[in-house]
Amino acid sequence: MQVVDVNMRLVDQAIECGATAAKIINVSDIVVAQWVRHKCQFGCPHYGNNFMCPPYAPSPRETLDVLSGYQRAILVKFSDRHIGGQGDGIGQAFVHNKLYELERRLFLDGYYKAISYTFGRCTLCKECLAEKIENPSLFDKKNCLNPKMARPSMEASGMDVFQTVRNAGWDLGVMQDKSEGFTAFGLILLE
Hints:
Elements: H1 2-16, E1 21-26, H2 34-41, H3 60-67, E2 72-79, H4 80-83, H5 92-108, E3 115-117, H6 161-167, E4 183-189
Antiparallel strand pairs: 1-2, 2-4, 3-4
């Protein structure tokens, strides 16, 4: 009974922070695969141009290492219809800020290991300084203008968002048309 109350309180906090819905999941339900990172490298124009994207983001191996120190996480759902998005790159800053706000609240509530993963590229700055770097190295990340709030996305860290969301019991398919509406997911590792 007490665990259910704690889980409901966590979900309620996510919704208070602007989420459409949230679920507490076991970390074992988070799927990490090398192919996800590969798709970032060969298919995304932000690869190497954003400090929260590959090659700066944690590798799948590093992500698995981090996950091994956790048992539970909160999967957070955002809908563009809920947050007033219009389709193209919608709500990235909104989602990023709300996940950081929730991470901070959880930290202050005693979840001292809380760390969030957002979706898509980081949009905290109008232009990421990573775009100007010709030969990127991990040491360049120190040039990030928002290190306190900047977080990598689930996919940049090698997480298979589609399978992770399905493992949590939600449906998620590929958006065929922008008129369908957009759903974004973030994740906060708890304990």
